Amino acid sequence: MASTVQPIGNNTNFTVYSPTNAALGPRPLFTQIGNKFYFIETEVTKNWHDAYATCRQMGAHLISFDTADEWVQVTNYLVKNKIISDIWTSGSELAIQGNHVWFPTTDPIALNLWKPGEPNNRDGVEHCDVMTHDGSVFTGLNDVRCDRFFKYICQLSN
Ligand SMILES: [Ca+2]
């Protein structure tokens, strides 16, 4: 899907307009970090499914990490902007338990981004993946209950 984006500079906020449905008006602000564009929800918390649906309504998806560089760039941006919180990613094992994948690609979470000891599927009910932190830096991915409420990041499809 082609989308018209008009960056006005690195790491600055800008507005993405829908090229296919002008009636929708300006989309939420997406921020360029590296070579991707993200909507970072810093106030409203949602459960994983609701966060996923919200990203879809923006024409985006919950964030996935394809490279270690992306993890570094995004987490550096978050720390620099004092956004240090558990944050939903698109990762889950909802399709096949024990097999954490990114949505919607179903690519396995192959990078070693897990916080040490995770994913642990504690009590057998942790199936959705957040970026987690120690209060000052992000420490990796953690599987948690999908019905918990967290902030989230949407990523525009390439
Ligand atoms: Ca866990």
UniProtKB/TrEMBL annotation:
Coiled coil: none annotated. This is C-type lectin domain-containing protein. CDD domains: CLECT. InterPro entries: C-type_lectin-like (IPR001304), C-type_lectin-like/link_sf (IPR016186), C-type_lectin/snaclec_domain (IPR050111), CTDL_fold (IPR016187). Gene3D superfamilies: Mannose-Binding Protein A, subunit A. Pfam families: Lectin_C (PF00059). Residues 33-155 form the C-type lectin domain. SMART domains: CLECT. It comes from the Eukaryota.
